[in-house]
Structures are given as structure tokens and as C-alpha cells.
Design brief:
By secondary structure, the chain is mostly helical. Helix content is 75%, strand content 0%. The protein has 11 helices and no strands. It has helices spanning 8-20, 33-63, 70-93, 96-109, 114-120, 129-160, 181-229, 237-290, 294-333, 341-353, 370-377. Helix 2 (33-63) crosses helix 7 (181-229) and helix 7 (181-229) runs antiparallel to helix 8 (237-290). The radius of gyration is 25 Å and the shape is elongated.
Length: 378
């Protein structure tokens, strides 16, 4: 039985599905009118509750009356940096025209026939089960941070016959003797939608980045393989040089695609590296202070997924960096002894052009690679 080779739409299905969790569609609006209306309402609720919670957070910070312990100071520090990181990434994907343009360029050069997809080995570049599991685990562990307090409240009721009315974020102060239970429900709804906006914005932008970077790596690998396997001859000089011209044109196009990708995600990458390092520090300290509670365990899970998230972005940055350097090795590796002198001179041009690495860059300040991950997490 012939295996199915994934289409380009299969690749972008993952980031689009993640963003639908907060009612956001990057590439197009829902097709039916009722879905557009419901999506718009849900999107407005997520953004509105996020704005409400951030406003209360800033009010508590400036008020300073309720932040009366080291644990709360560390928690507010974590929340502020996470909000900044998430909102920056949300602003990144609001560059809808730039993302759609890059998406169309990548879709246009994606192999259309099954034969070409087999040659490009597209299935080897598709989302792995491990990566999909990490996405689910990240969302689930973030959800546990919000759900954990209400689970603790129910546990308190079952064990001590007293509902403790706990909730996730310290912005809202609820007094069961003064406030209605519906206010407590409203707080949980607002916190859930606020958390959804932050979590999906945070991970969704990175999934789009990895999706696009994977496509660029796919084309680099195929180009390198074609160059390594090619066998030029003096009798076939015209066709040989046309082949090299195609390689050069493809290389130039991929370099420009990488520049487009850096232009879209470079700003969020730079801030993400800075804020993620800060979040890892504050979450670690807060977890040590909280100890082995359900909330502490939830934050440990969240901490682990945040590290993996940063690693995945740096890993794909390393991939494109390595592949751009492998072009020179491919030139040396392929059998050019029987080629014409003009063909060999063209090879020198390719080697010179490939000396400048193609890299995932944080606004040109630093390349994103595994060395970056070591520096940020160290």
C-alpha cells in the first residue's frame, strides 16, 4: 500500500488548530456566517478578559497593599514577564499580511505531486508525535495552573467540609462572606479566558515559526541532496550550468524567505529569550517557596514545558544554520571531475555565496541556535 505524503495544508493545520483555541484565525476567517459571529464573540471575550486581568494586575502592583510577601513578589514578577512575552507574540501574529505572504510563498514552492513529495521526503519533516504531545502537555500543564486552585477548593470541601474558594491569580480578592458565589464563578471564567489568551499566544507564535522554518529546512535539504547526487560532464555543459543556475536561484529564494521569517518573528524572539530566562528564574524560586503542593507541581510542569518550548525554537534555528553551511560540503562532495572549466568556476561562486550563513535571527542581534539555548538557560 502506497504511503500518504503530506500536503502543505497538513503542515499548517497544527498552528491553525492551536490558535482556534482562542478564537483566532491567522490566514482566513471562518466560511459560514454563524461561525464568524461565534468566533468573533469568543475572540472578544478572550481579549476582554485578558485586558481586565492585566488592568487588575497593574492596579495591585501600584496599590502595593496586597503584595505583602516574597512569594507574592516572585509570583507577580513571573506574571508580568509572562504577560509581556505573550502580548509581544500576539502582536507578532497580528502581522497578518506578512504571515499570509510568507505562507503563500512557501505553499507555492511546496512539491505538488506525490512523486515530488516522495523525493523531497516531506513525511520526514512532518510534525512528530513527540512534538504534538509536547504541545498538548504544554496546554494541559498551563490549564492545570488555572484549574488547580478550584480542585484544591473541592478537595478542601470533601475532606474538611469547607469550600476554600481558591482561584488562580492574586489580582482578584474574593471574600465569601461579602461576595456572591457568582462573582467567584465570574472570576474563574475571566481567569480561564485570560490564561487562554496568554498561553495560546505564547506557544502559537512559536509553532508558526517552527512550521515555516521546517519548510525552509525541507527545501535546503532537497537542494543539498540534488547537488550531491548530480554528475556533470563536459558534453552536457549547457544543461549542467542551467542546473547550477537553478540551485543558485533556489538558494537566493530561500535566503529571502529566511529574511522574511526573521522580519516577522525577530522582535518576539529577542524579547522571548530575555523574558523566558526571567520567567524560568522567577518560576523556579516561586516553586521552591510553595513546596510540594498542587500549585507547586503545576508550576514545575509549566517550567519544564517552557524550557522545552525554548529548546525547540533554538533547535530549528540550529538546523537552518547547519544546512546553510552544508551547501559548501555538498559542492565538494559531488562528482565534478568530468565537468567543464566554466562549471567548476560556477561552483566556486556557490561556495563563496554559501560562506555567509543563513540563520534564524533575533532582530540581527544574535543567531538563534543551541548555543543560544545554553546561554539563556544557563
Amino acid at each position: 500500500m502506497q504511503s500518504v505524503h503530506y500536503s502543505y495544508e497538513d503542515f499548517i493545520k497544527v498552528p491553525r488548530s492551536v490558535y482556534r483555541l482562542m478564537g483566532f484565525e491567522t490566514l482566513e476567517t471562518p466560511k459560514t456566517r454563524i461561525r464568524r459571529i461565534l468566533t468573533l464573540i469568543y475572540r472578544f471575550m478572550c481579549v476582554g478578559c485578558h485586558g481586565l486581568c492585566v488592568s487588575f494586575m497593574m492596579f495591585r502592583i501600584f496599590e502595593r497593599k496586597t503584595i505583602d510577601s516574597i512569594a507574592l513578589i516572585m509570583r507577580y514578577s513571573t506574571l508580568v514577564t509572562y504577560v509581556i512575552n505573550s502580548d509581544t507574540k500576539y502582536a507578532t501574529v497580528l502581522q497578518a499580511n506578512a504571515i499570509r505572504t510568507l505562507n503563500k510563498k512557501l505553499a507555492d514552492i511546496y512539491p505538488k505531486s506525490m512523486l515530488k513529495r516522495r523525493f523531497y521526503r516531506v513525511n520526514e519533516h512532518y510534525w512528530s508525535r513527540t512534538f504534538l504531545f509536547l504541545i498538548i502537555f504544554y496546554v494541559a500543564s498551563s490549564a492545570m495552573v488555572v484549574i488547580g486552585p478550584i480542585l484544591q477548593s473541592f478537595w478542601s470541601y470533601l475532606v474538611y467540609k469547607e469550600f476554600s474558594y481558591m482561584h488562580c491569580y492574586p489580582y482578584f480578592i474574593f471574600d465569601p462572606e461579602k461576595h456572591s458565589v457568582w462573582i467567584y464563578v465570574g472570576i474563574h471564567v475571566a481567569e480561564w479566558l485570560h490564561s487562554t489568551q496568554m498561553v495560546i499566544s505564547n506557544i502559537g507564535a512559536d509553532i508558526w515559526l517552527i512550521c515555516f522554518e521546517t519548510q525552509i529546512c525541507l527545501h535546503f535539504r532537497t537542494m543539498i541532496r540534488r547537488l550531491e547526487d548530480y554528475q556533470p560532464t563536459r558534453d552536457n555543459d549547457v544543461a549542467d550550468r542551467q542546473f547550477l543556475a537553478q540551485i543558485v536561484d533556489k538558494h537566493n529564494y530561500l535566503v529571502n524567505l529566511q529574511k522574511d521569517l526573521n522580519g516577522i518573528f525577530g522582535g518576539s524572539l529577542l524579547l522571548s529569550l530575555l523574558s523566558t530566562a526571567s520567567v524560568l528564574c522567577t518560576v523556579s524560586v516561586y516553586t521552591l517557596i510553595q513546596g510540594l503542593t498542587l500549585e507547586g507541581i503545576s508550576y514545575v510542569m509549566f517550567l519544564g514545558t517552557s524550557v522545552v518550548q525554548m529548546y525547540m525554537v533554538c533547535y530549528y534555528g540550529q538546523q537552518v544554520l547547519d544546512l546553510s553551511a552544508d551547501i559548501t560540503q555538498a559542492v565538494y562532495s559531488h562528482d565534478f571531475q568530468n565537468a567543464s572549466l566554466a562549471y567548476k568556476k560556477d561552483l566556486v561562486t556557490i561556495i563563496i555565496r554559501s560562506q555567509k550563513p543563513v540563520e534564524l535571527s533575533a532582530m540581527g542581534f544574535l543567531p538563534i541556535s543551541l548555543d543560544t539555548f545554553k546561554q539563556a538557560s544557563g
